[in-house]
Amino acid sequence: MSPSILEELMTGARRLWSHIPADRAFLLRDADLLVGIARARVVLRGATLGARVYVGGPLKVVADGEITVGELTCFFGGMIASELICHPGARVAIGRSSELNYGVSVEARQAITIGASCKLGSMVRIADWSPVASGPVVIEDEVWLAHGVVIEPGVTIGRGSVVSAGSVVTSSIPPDSLAIGNPARALRLDLLAKTTSR
Amino acid sequence: MIALGARLRRAATRWKLRRCAEVGEGVRVLGRVWIHGGGTIRVGDRVLLDGSVSPIELHAGAGAEIVLGADVRVDGGASLEAARSIAIGERAHLGCFCKILDNHFHRVSSRDQRPVSEPVIVEEDVDLGARAILLPGARVGRATVVGPGTVLARRVPAEALVAGLPATVKRR
User: Fold this and answer.
1) Averaged over A75-96, what is the pLDDT?
2) Looking at the partner chain, which of A119, A178, A180 has a beta carbon nearest the beta carbon of B106?
3) Structurally, what CATH architecture does the domain formed by A3-193 represent?
4) pTM of this structure
């Protein structure tokens, strides 16, 4: 194909696109939402799903154990596939209205609990088993795990806490704190709020 | 035959970078590049986007700008997300799975609000290690080496070695 043919195809595609008026753009968005909800029913077919669970991109699911996903929870799509692996006899529970970005990896051999209204950034890794440790992982409600966070086995993240990008959490984090570093140390969020505008 | 191959490769590159506002001479793209958002992306001369390991993400939100200077090399899995401005200087190297953000996207106190963006600047000849993360407000001085897995949210001087989490200057 010569570049000129490519350009022709591109202008053709642009012309088609321009037929959808701006005030009808929500139709495309709604269509994406419907496709995502339908995709969730297919890829998470071994799991117990709440209403309107959305899967926006590639998601690898191994549902040999028991997976429950609460209503309105979103798995966003992106450049790297997410994975949700539940080995036989294990349990993964994700609460309602949580948001999981692309490249998230959750692997359970015992139990992993993710609360309601949590935000998991891209490339977050949560496992309840490693060659040197094991133990159930609990992420309580309204926790925000930023990009690239690793949660080690046996860790509990308290309600409303934030774990900053790239941190490795090896011990439990109390509620309403900010965890930073490798290994992660916790600071209290309310003290922090007085010194920074974020 | 060779001329045809080169032309096809150029056409493929042009197709892959069709959403960029400016693409320089001799730009090469291997594998997949995922370009999205309504902003402006400028790619300088001889830039290499090597997405053969894993796709590269370039996301400039509406009104935002990403500038890749001449001779920049970007490895697979690298992800640049701009809500206002990210600038990468000439000859810089961005390692595998590194992430550059100029916005946290959620406020710590009220998670559904978006905080103000702070531009990220990577100066000339910087080497950003694999899995390094540059957060809003990061500014890496000329020819500084950022170690693998470093998380950085502040200014660091030129010609230094920066590593660790939280990041510290190891050598100047």
Assistant:
1) 93
2) A119
3) 3 Solenoid (2.160)
4) 0.85
